[in-house]
Design goal:
Order of helices and strands: HHEEEEEEH
Mean pLDDT: 77
Distance between the termini: 199 Å
Largest sheet: 2 strands, antiparallel
Strand order of the largest sheet: 1-6
Structural class: mainly alpha
Oligomer: single chain
Strand content: 5-15%
Shape: elongated
Low-confidence stretches: none
Length: 197
């Protein structure tokens, strides 16, 4: 029982040994509060469009085309000092100490050079594409010319063969006539009129 009487005394003494600290909290005037975007970055949510696919956990289930929303970066405090406007509220930098890379005349000149080089490459690619299509047209025309040439060569060969055959036939026809003319006596016409018996 003695011990039970000591417990309230210990509790009272422990509460009395720590003085309560009082903190004065007062609401700031509304003009002093910055906009919520300047104090805290919002969640960065990206949308992905997924086509049809079979659910890997349920192979008997197929998902149809639908959007998929994913939180890329959670909401976080803006640790930039002062009331600097954020560069892009929809896609804030991942690092709280992020600052834009320095831009000077050399960087800008290099960007322009790269842009001009890209334009030249694109122009050359377009010119090569046009040249290739023209070359394809020429190749097709040459193929047609070669087919026509082969056909004409065949027809010319056939015509020469027929001419050779005709010459041989004429020679065979002329050869017997000339031999018979030399072998036979000349034609003597018979007189027309009364003949003597």
């Amino acid at each position: 029982m003695k011990y039970l009487a000591l417990i309230p005394l210990v509790l009272i003494s422990s509460c009395a040994s720590h003085p309560k600290s009082r903190m004065a909290i007062s609401a700031a005037p509304t003009s002093a509060i910055e906009s919520p975007e300047a104090l805290r970055y919002a969640d960065v949510v990206r949308t992905y469009y997924v086509g049809r696919y079979v659910d890997p956990n349920h192979p008997d289930t197929m998902q149809e085309h639908h959007p998929l929303y994913r939180i890329e970066a959670s909401a976080r405090w803006n640790l930039h000092p002062g009331s600097q406007p954020t560069a892009n509220l929809l896609n804030p930098p991942l690092d709280s100490a992020f600052s834009q890379p320095p831009t000077n005349d050399a960087v800008i000149a290099e960007m322009y050079r790269q842009r001009e080089a890209t334009e030249r490459v694109m122009d050359e690619a377009a010119r090569l594409g046009r040249s290739f299509s023209e070359l394809q047209t020429v190749v097709n025309e040459l193929r047609n010319v070669a087919q026509n040439d082969a056909m004409l060569t065949k027809r010319l060969t056939d015509a020469e063969q027929r001419i050779t055959d005709f010459e041989k036939a004429l020679q065979t026809l002329n050869a017997p006539i000339s031999r018979t003319a030399q072998d036979e006596p000349a034609f003597i016409p018979e007189p027309i009129g009364p003949t003597k018996p």
